[in-house]
Design brief:
The protein is mainly α and 78 residues long. The protein has three helices and no strands. Helices cover 82% and strands 0% of the residues. Helix 1 runs antiparallel to helix 2 and helix 2 runs antiparallel to helix 3. The longest helix is centred in the N-terminal third of the chain and has 22 residues.
């Protein structure tokens, strides 16, 4: 295993734990806020690993990630 693969596995595990924190914090606003902030931070750190085309701007990738997070949140509270 090379370092790239190990880093990807580590960040995926962080994202899974952030989703677990979100599920565990349903009903508590500040815990939910902190959990989504943690998930967002994990996803931002994954941007360099997920980017295949250098022509796509970082803001566009961040926008897509935020849309995904808020969509997940809407499914969670629905």
């Amino acid at each position: 295993m090379n370092n790239y693969f190990i880093n990807i596995i580590g960040w995926i595990m962080f994202v899974i734990s952030a989703i677990g924190f979100i599920i565990a914090s349903v009903g508590n606003f500040w815990s939910m806020f902190g959990s989504f902030f943690f998930l967002g931070a994990c996803l931002v750190f994954l941007i360099p690993y997920l980017r295949k085309n250098n022509n796509i701007s970082d803001l566009h990738i961040l926008y897509q990630i935020l849309c995904l997070v808020f969509s997940f949140y809407q499914l969670l509270i629905w």
